[in-house]
Predict the 3D structure of the following.
Amino acid sequence: MTTLLEISDLKVSVRTTEILRGISVTVEAGETVGLVGESGSGKSTTARAALKLFPDQAATSGAVVVGGTDLLTCPPAEVQDVRANHAAMIFQAPRTALNPVRRIGDSATERLVQVHGVRKNVARGKLVELFGEVGLRDPERLLRLYPHQLSGGMLQRVVIAAALSIDPRLLLADEATSALDVTTQAEVLALLRRLRAERDLGVLFITHDLHLAAAYCDRVYVMKDGLIVDHQPGQTIFENPVNEYTRALAAAVPKLPDREEVPT
Ligand SMILES: Nc1ncnc2c1ncn2[C@@H]1O[C@H](COP(=O)(O)OP(=O)(O)OP(=O)(O)O)[C@@H](O)[C@H]1O
């Protein structure tokens, strides 16, 4: 087993506000690990910690080891190496991840060109290949388009392809499918699952949806108020929530009214 991310007793606070209060999370190669919790529980802060992206003036303690490097104690050059080569993040809103006035090809190749010093035409060649891998047709034409000319689902595939361009081992998916309609969400989830298997990626999958995490993830951590309050395999967390909060989350799933109850 290769541990791609090992967060140990991580505490993050800004002035007097404790955002993370001592959490431990691991992600192995080849597994999808869910991070579930209500808004403000600290999910995004945890994922961003894997790139050493903390709020301004944050005080931190503990360890965040990515690919063998502890980001909290290593020199800045090693943090840059982790960001450039080991871990990539995809967000909820692909439209905000891409500059609306730049062509897709320029935005999607930016990291390869600017961080890795890859020649522009080589980077475009790699993107064409990756667009095929993520199921985008007519890749040469797509590179010339602007974000508003693509659907949300297509844009999220573009963002995933751009994230893969650095061949990361760890993918941090922060509500990456939440803004998509259900059919597109299912397609993107299937894509992430296939990419994980083919590339032996570790995926940290953030969602507020316990149902989705239980169905999709190998293991699930439940967060509340900056703490991990439950941690189980996806298969069991929904049926046997050990923590009262997880039980409440499971029970909070809206129940559809019976047909007779719906006024006509
Ligand atoms: N720069 C900051 N300064 C102070 N508090 C912050 C800062 N950034 C985040 N927080 C607080 O930390 C807590 C955790 O935020 P975080 O974004 O990690 O939660 P989350 O679970 O990802 O929520 P959401 O689902 O809404 O994105 C929140 O209460 C938030 O207000």
